[in-house]
Design a protein that fits this description.
- The structure is a single chain.
- The protein has one helix at about 1-20; strands spanning about 50-55, 60-65, 70-75, 80, 90-100, 105-110, 115, 120.
- It is α/β, with parallel strands linked by helices.
- It has a domain at about 60-70 and about 90-120.
- β2 and β3 form a beta hairpin.
- Strands 1, 4, 7 and 8 form a four-stranded mixed β-sheet that branches.
Length: about 130
Amino acid sequence: MKALRLFTILMLAVLVLSSWAPAPVYAKGSEAASANTILAGDLAAAKLARLRVNNRTGGTLYVRFSGERSYSFAASSQGRTTFESVIQPGKYIITITASRCSGELTLRRKVKGGTVSIPAISCRKK
């Protein structure tokens, strides 16, 4: 009876320890990369767009682009703000919120390059 109990405890210990140990994995790509292989992309060829907003909210204006890629911008200064050219071409849903206003404004835009201008944003009193 003692031998059966000892055997059961040892088997449980082996199962627990084997599940915690990392399993060795060996993987090899289908093709070995040669020494002359490089990863390259022509970012200069992509026409990036910049964002221009006119903040009249009295607070910080937040603009979020959602689509193939995501971008977030915050304009704390009042008046016109132009951000650097970082937005890649594509279709985006633009969500605009402000720290001093409730709610949000949603726009759909197709960006090709150049400047994406958002109309003047101000808070309205109810």
